[in-house]
Amino acid sequence: MLVLERVGKTYPNGVHALGGVSLEVELGEIVAVIGGSGCGKSTLLRTISGLDPSSEGSVVLDGERIIAPHEKIGIIFQEPRLLPWLKVADNVGFGLGDRPKSERAHRVAAALKRVGLADKAGVWPRELSGGQAQRVAIARALVPRPEVLLLDEPFSALDAFTRADLQDHLLDLWTDLRPTLILVTHDVDEAIVLADRIMVMCPRPGRVFEDIGVDLPRPRDRQSAAFDFAKRRVLAALDRSLQRVPSGAEDEPKAEAGAALWW
Amino acid sequence: MSLVGMSIIVEGSPAQERTARNRWARLTRPALGFVLPVTLAVTWEFVVRMGWASGRLAPPPSVIFATFVDLARTGDLQRNTLVTLGRVAAGFGLGAGVATIVGAAAGYSPLVRRLLDPSLQALRAIPSIAWVPLFILWLGIFEASKVTLIAVGVFFPVYLGLMGAIQSVDRKLVEVGRAFRLSDVAMVRRILLPAVLPAYVISLRSGLGLGWMFVVAAELMGASEGLGYLLIDGQQLGKPAEIVTAIVAFAIVGKATDWLIALVATPFLRWEDVVRQD
Prior knowledge:
The complex is a heterodimer of chains A (about 260) and B (about 280). With about 260 residues, chain A is of the alpha/beta class.
């Protein structure tokens, strides 16, 4: 279990990016973090990853405090960040540097097969499309079998078709391996397709504004009424988090609520 | 191109035709670069043979070639080339070695950079030939001062290139290394080294180019052997063909050493996403 206790982050330049986020995430849960820009979503994720440890409070995974990158935590960035001088297979095996060669080859091949890129093992990263590169990045993060996988707007740079494809793909992977997923996104649809819970954050300093459960059976139909209902709920919460709707009117999502989608 | 390509496809054996065309293009395209010098050489030869010019100060290609063969037969050319090559190798090794250490330290550590870089930049502003009298006073007129001058010439491009390359390593890739908990040594070996290699190779090649420039300067200022000595000898004895021969030897060995660096580096740089010219 991942426990965040009043996690705060103040940067050395005095910017108070995150102010006291508390959160408990069960193993295998999928949590989406959503919110307007500057609400500390990415900061929160980087804090959990140990890349930018918190300045207040604590992040604890299975009783162990996270203050630096940890083997049980994997991270996928907005860009694939593949190492251009390594072939795809070596990129995927990057986190297995200390394992015997045969084990490494075996696990890399399995991971590439799982993301549907078995035929690209010997290819340079520059020869991949954006979607393929991000799939390789997912494989690279999954190969060390992390307990928690953090995703920082992983599909935002991709076109709509590739994005939907990769969302489904990510769910398939999750079904097989059941890691905890924490996904930062600005795409409400993406949050609802994937998450068990959606944390709506609000800015200055970044904190959790609302914790919305998504209780829809998987796979989720993007066209269904229930999906639409959940979407309205999240959008309304987003609007409130940005204080654009006067309090009292919050139960009635307004027509222009969709505007928050592309913030 | 497209019209020709299309007609080939219509003809039915596109792959075969295309490889044949490619092979032809591979052979002819570099040859295009020879057109100008060869034309000039042939013209000059013709002009001298016809007696329209004496060719005493600007010998025709046949005379240069004869001198080249002559010097090669007596072994003078090889001996002098080897001496010069040895100086460049020593100066390049020394300059590039020191530049690699200092450049790596300055690129990696802001403290070292703040400490050393201003002084080195100030020294860089001095035209390196200006050091010659001082080096001769300090190190004598023999090999040490020559090698030092070459090393100074090689040092700056390598130092600047490596320091800049380390500083501009993509922070995002370094973060990938951190996320996978690489040790400092592993970070250098698996991220920094491959990331700086392309720029480092380029800086080595420009350093080597300067090394060849400076060896000429060093040898012109007093040497009893070496290609630079051939230049001076040719000038003093009025043998322009010998001068041109030395120049041609410089060009050949300089290009060969540059090519050698490129050749050694190629297997490590295959990943580069560059626009290839073909």
